[in-house]
TrEMBL record, chain A:
PROSITE patterns: 2FE2S_FER_1, 2FE2S_FER_2. One of its GO terms (cellular component) is periplasmic space. The keyword Metal-binding applies. This is 2Fe-2S iron-sulfur cluster binding domain-containing protein. Residues 1-77 form the 2Fe-2S ferredoxin-type domain. InterPro entries: 2Fe-2S-bd, 2Fe-2S-bd_dom_sf, 2Fe-2S_ferredoxin-like_sf, 2Fe-2S_ferredoxin-type, 2Fe2S_fd_BS, Aldehyde_Oxdr_Iron-Sulfur, Beta-grasp_dom_sf. The keyword Chloroplast does not apply. One of its GO terms (molecular function) is 2 iron, 2 sulfur cluster binding. Pathway: Alkaloid degradation; nicotine degradation. It comes from the Bacteria. Keywords: 2Fe-2S, Iron, Iron-sulfur, Metal-binding, Oxidoreductase. CDD domains: fer2. The lineage of its organism: Bacteria, Bacillati, Actinomycetota, Actinomycetes, Streptosporangiales.
UniProtKB/TrEMBL annotation, chain B:
SUPFAM superfamilies: CO dehydrogenase flavoprotein C-terminal domain-like (SSF55447), FAD-binding/transporter-associated domain-like (SSF56176). Residues 1-222 form the FAD-binding PCMH-type domain. PANTHER family: OXIDOREDUCTASE, XANTHINE DEHYDROGENASE SUBUNIT C-RELATED. Keywords: Oxidoreductase. This is Xanthine dehydrogenase family protein subunit M. GO terms for molecular function: FAD binding; oxidoreductase activity.
Length: 148, 326
């Protein structure tokens, strides 16, 4: 049995078959479906979560590699100002990329990389939005960064 | 994904032993290329030996050299203050590669070993790929190509080496530490990669069971100016069409010393010795830059889709030289 720590809760996980990615473990075994499966190939950023505070892609991470790590998903953000800003700035249309965008944006603040709009665009570039809500996403991140 | 076994040995020696004794085993580090290729069905090890918790992480200053543990992540190396100060073009290459998420996962050793982005290599439904199935042919040469190599290429393979980081590292004569059951050997990065020739499946000098444990980055002398210029189809999060890594020492308007390498054009990260020869002790003028560029892109192997890269590569190098010397 492997133990996965997600949002402060420990979950025992049977990984006899190690093909399980962190993304599939979260969604299919722990019922934490806030983390989305987009491309499942490390190209879109929809599955962005934090591991020990750093943003990573859950789709290219094996669950077996995550014991002893503190995983944070969108469910683990407790009314973060970034979530509120995304709502107020209408920073999404279909919403599928949104939890990945928010997790990435929260990490971005911790990395001190939200100084300018150009920086926000550059360091959010791993999160694609097919609806093209980018300008509102930048506005939401900018606002939270300025108020931080 | 095909089934595999997963192990996480506690020591470097155990990890090397585990892979060495199973011809279908491989090391697992950041996984950003490896797990992706396993999902695609291109790569199917029967055993993955997870090395991510081994003590091969961190950057140490050693005189005029930085010794980088192979498991240091791209983000960690990009944050190294000595590197930022002394060789900023390495940091630029790191931060212009992939995304922050991928850079938090991907390791320096793994970055150097990343596989080509050639779409035919990555699609097992394409029968012809000498890199994937030796002797099967090359779809890219006969079909649609664009993100492919024009130097070091052959009719057997035009797959591009996609690493940005490797470009300034070959320019700086970085050295790779390789550990095996027999002991350690050191290989200059300029001699680490193999051109495809008739054996595109062999990309570097690593033998099965050998593990990269560290990379030595010689620091250029204080006063060196450097640049990594990356040209791509979109502004961020994209592989290079062409790129240039240049480090120079100037004396007034004269280039005293130059180190030059290019990415996006070669089957291996391309060190530009001819350009360096042209630039050394030469005035920093457009004529000098043009002959450095002409000397680099010599006898390119082009297919219709890659012909544009000949002039683009030259202009990339000229612009990088212009910016870094002005």
């Amino acid at each position: 049995m492997t133990t996965l720590t997600v949002n402060g809760t420990e979950y025992p996980l049977d990984l006899a078959d190690p093909r399980v990615t962190l993304l599939d473990a979260l969604r299919d075994r722990l019922d934490l479906t806030g983390t989305k499966k987009g491309c499942d190939q490390g190209a879109c950023g929809a599955c962005t979560v934090l591991s020990d505070g750093r943003r990573i892609l859950a789709c290219l991470t094996l669950a077996a590699q995550c014991d002893g790590r503190e995983i944070t998903t969108i469910e683990g953000l407790e009314s973060h100002p970034m979530q509120d800003a995304f709502v107020r700035h209408d920073a999404f249309q279909c919403g599928y990329c949104t939890s990945g965008q928010i997790m990435s944006a929260v990490a971005l603040l911790g990395e001190n990389r939200a100084g300018t709009d150009a920086d926000i665009r550059e360091y959010m570039s791993g999160n694609l939005c097919r609806c093209g809500a980018y300008s509102n996403i930048v506005a939401a991140v900018r606002e939270v960064a300025r108020n931080a | 994904m095909r089934e595999f076994r997963y192990e996480r040995p506690a020591t470097v020696a155990e990890a090397i032993r585990a892979v060495s004794h199973d011809p279908e085993a491989d090391f697992l580090a950041g996984g950003t290329t490896e797990v992706d290729l396993m999902k695609d069905g291109v790569f199917h090890p029967d055993l993955l030996v997870d090395i991510t918790r081994l003590p091969l992480r961190g950057v140490r200053r050693n005189g005029t050299m930085l010794q980088v543990g192979a498991l240091t992540t791209m983000e960690e190396l990009a944050a190294d203050r000595t590197l930022v100060e002394r060789a900023p073009f390495v940091v630029e290459a790191l931060l212009r590669g992939a995304s922050a998420q991928l850079r938090n996962m991907a390791t320096i050793g793994g970055n150097l070993l990343q596989r080509t982005r050639c779409r035919y290599f990555r699609d097992p439904a394409v029968p012809a790929c000498n890199k994937r199935e030796p002797g099967s042919g090359c779809e890219a040469v006969n079909s649609v190509a664009r993100m492919h190599a024009i130097l070091g290429a052959s009719p057997a393979c035009i797959a591009l080496h996609a690493s940005d980081l490797a470009v300034p590292l070959v320019a700086l004569d970085a050295v790779v530490h390789i550990q095996s059951e027999e002991g350690e050997r050191l290989v200059p990065l300029t001699q680490f990669y193999l051109m495809p020739g008739e054996t595109p499946d062999r990309e570097n000098v690593l033998r099965h069971g050998e593990l990269i444990t560290a990379i030595d980055i010689p620091l250029p002398p204080p006063g060196t100016r450097s640049i990594y210029l990356k040209i791509r189809d979109r502004a961020s999060y994209e592989f290079a069409l062409t790129s240039a890594a240049v480090a120079v020492i100037m004396d007034g308007g004269v280039i005293k010393e130059a180190r030059v390498a290019m990415g996006g054009i070669g089957t291996i990260p391309w060190r530009c010795f001819e350009a360096e020869e042209v630039l050394r002790e030469a005035p920093a003028t457009p004529d000098t830059f043009r002959s450095a560029a002409d000397g680099t892109i010599r006898d390119p192997f082009v297919v219709p889709g890659t012909a544009f890269k000949v002039e683009l590569a030259k202009r990339t190098l000229i612009r990088a030289l212009t910016e870094v010397t002005s």
